[in-house]
Amino acid sequence: MSQDKIQADFDRIARLLAEEPERPDRYERFLLAQVPASCQRVLEVGCGAGRLARAIAARGAAVTGIDASPEMIRLARQGSPEDASVEFVCGDFSVQPLGPGLYDCVLSAATLHHMPVAATLARMKGLLRPDGVLVLHDLRSLVGVGDWLRSGLAAVCNGDAAWWIRSRLRERRVVRAAWREHGSGERYLTMMEVRALCETTLPNARIYCHALWRYTVVWTREPVQASPVQASNGSHVTEMGRVTPWK
Question: Which fold is adopted by the domain 3-224?
Fold first, then answer.
């Protein structure tokens, strides 16, 4: 899907959402818990209407939200108090001037699948300070009957399925249609691909597999210091990320 088509879809969705009451996402509290309370500067990539960015700013952090959709940014600014410590920027994350090593946390929700993964992750990592935290939350593709059954059973048991049904019933039909049309042309990573990506790009990341076709990756940038192993032979060995299912 082209970037122009993605922007047009989200401009359309933003205009529709402007007439809807704001509602929290199912995973909002979980994502907030992944952002360290000590963070002073946070960047949200793909901030949409700004609800998550405002929630982080309310905890005392200075937050920058960036999104390529002018209508989403308009909605985000409109919904934010004037004294909120949050700034919304309309632009392309891949080329937007942002200070390297500036942020304590870089967060992205339901956005990575719209972008070139390798280049996007490299830029996100470069924007983090040493010990900074990267939080990636996105949709995932289900593979095989077993994956569908496990996800469905987990969603029923933990209340995700009931939440999803209620949220869809509250939305106007035209909003559901806009989301469905946008999603019809998208492709998401499988959990196997997420694990492989973390092994090569985000070593030692925590990987969460969620019931409602979502996953979360939490990765901490290492401090800038030479380890004894690196000092002796220049090599560095890391473990594979561990997977925590069904959060």
Answer: Rossmann fold (3.40.50)
